[in-house]
Amino acid sequence: MYYFIVKILAVATDNFEFYYNVVRELKQRDISFVSLSPTDPIASNIGVVITTSLEAEAIDHPHVIPGDDDIRMAVRRALSTLSGKSAYECLVVGIDPGIRPGVALLGDGKLLETDYASNPETVRDIVERYMEGYEFQKMIIRVGHGDKTNRNRTINALRSIATTIEIVNEESTTGKGGSPDLEAARRIALSQGELAEGDFVVEATEGEKKEIQRRSRIKSGGDVTISKELAKKVVEGELKLPDAIKKQKENKEKNQ
């Protein structure tokens, strides 16, 4: 009879702030770990250790990852080490488009992490961090077909860093539970789509402009309603809503 030791992750540090930040990242991903001091003996079931650069020298283990500069990057590298993956054959990014897009990353079919982007353009920042944090042979980006305006903004933002972008029919990808956008993003990542080719025009609809105008009234406490021209720029990603409200207030003061 053969017994296999399941390797786990250890956080070895006496730096409370660093420990808190690493643990927060691990708990968000629902990853099991053990806590150690840098001078504690390392058990045989420890597959990788995350610590600070200063404390790394005191740890006798073949897989020690300092995480001072970028904790999220350190966790990614630790998870790759635990999985025995020096490189993934294929990373797939699923994106549920919207004002705050949901993003899911799969490595060879396994969910690695999820995130929210603050707007369609910052999806690019998240994807770039994935590209820096994981070794892989190829990457496919899949974007849900719904919410045309934000979908097109997302695709345009990713054009320069991605060679393969697909548009996935979202009819069967609606998420359930506490984070529907993230679940939808995972389902989008798992669904093959059609290659996104050609230029994608971003053009605000009348309904989208009216919605932004409504939000501007709420955000300004009823003080102003931004113009359709400013609302159009917000919808199309040329201007952020707080900046549009500021411009509208300045125009209002000039006209008084």
Summary?
With 256 residues, this protein is an alpha/beta fold. The protein has nine helices and ten strands. It folds into three domains: 8-83, Response regulator (Rossmann fold, 3-Layer(aba) Sandwich), CATH 3.40.50.2300; 88-195, 2-Layer Sandwich (Nucleotidyltransferase, domain 5); 206-255.
What does this protein look like?
This protein has three domains: 8-83, Response regulator (Rossmann fold), CATH 3.40.50; 88-195, Nucleotidyltransferase, domain 5, CATH 3.30.420.80; 206-255. The protein has 256 residues and is α/β, with parallel strands linked by helices. The chain is 39% helix and 21% strand. α5 (148-158) links the parallel β8 and β9. α7 crosses α8 and α8 packs antiparallel against α9. It has helices at residues 16-28, 53-56, 71-83, 123-133, 148-158, 180-189, 206-219, 228-235, 241-255; strands spanning 8-12, 33-36, 46-51, 64-66, 88-96, 102-107, 110-116, 136-144, 165-168, 194-195.
